[in-house]
Specification:
Shape: globular
Helix content: 25-40%
Radius of gyration: 16 Å
CATH superfamily: Hotdog Thioesterase
Largest sheet: 6 strands, antiparallel
Number of strands: 6
Strand order of the largest sheet: 1-2-4-5-6-3
Strand content: 35-45%
Number of domains: 1
């Protein structure tokens, strides 16, 4: 199962920043348990939304050079408020630095202009074929799927 926690990319500047949106729907299954009388987006999923937006920025910034981008570290993560059904978490990530295998970003999520979550993320980038040469076809497939996913999220907002 794959959780996609970004509904739309509203602004994108490759090599610089991304702004993405997650509209929290009461239909999301995890809200039945988190919490039944006070449904809110779990903090770990707020962090996941920041990671997903950050990874999208990195994929685009390096023109999909690496097939895999993983969250290596989440530093100084601070939670300031809840995200409730019907609210929109606006995630903004700014690329601070990128070397051969790591990318460091500053990310935050706001609801109605108020801080909800923030932190510094370190993402690790690699190709499976660098470690297992027989996985080159998987790398190509992963890149194609991510391109399609990003085109859907960004085109939705920018189709003439």
């Amino acid at each position: 199962m794959r959780f996609t926690l970004i509904d739309r990319i509203s602004d994108l500047k490759p090599g610089e920043s991304i702004t993405a949106l997650k509209v929290l729907s009461l239909a999301e299954e995890y809200l039945q348990d988190h919490f039944p009388r006070f449904p809110v987006m779990p903090g770990v999923l707020m962090l996941e939304a920041m990671y997903q937006a950050s990874a999208m920025l990195v994929f685009l910034s390096e023109d999909f050079h690496h097939s895999t981008i993983l969250l290596k570290e989440a530093r100084n993560v601070k939670y300031a408020d809840f995200v409730r059904p019907g609210e929109t978490l606006v995630v903004h990530a700014e690329l601070l630095k990128m070397d051969d295998s790591l990318a460091t970003l500053k990310a935050k999520g706001v609801v109605a202009g108020e801080p909800a979550v923030s932190g510094k993320l370190v993402l690790e980038r690699f190709n499976a074929s660098d470690r297992l040469p027989q996985r080159a076809a998987w790398d190509d497939h992963a890149r194609m799927k991510m391109r399609q996913h990003l085109e859907m999220l960004y085109r939705r907002n920018h189709s003439g």
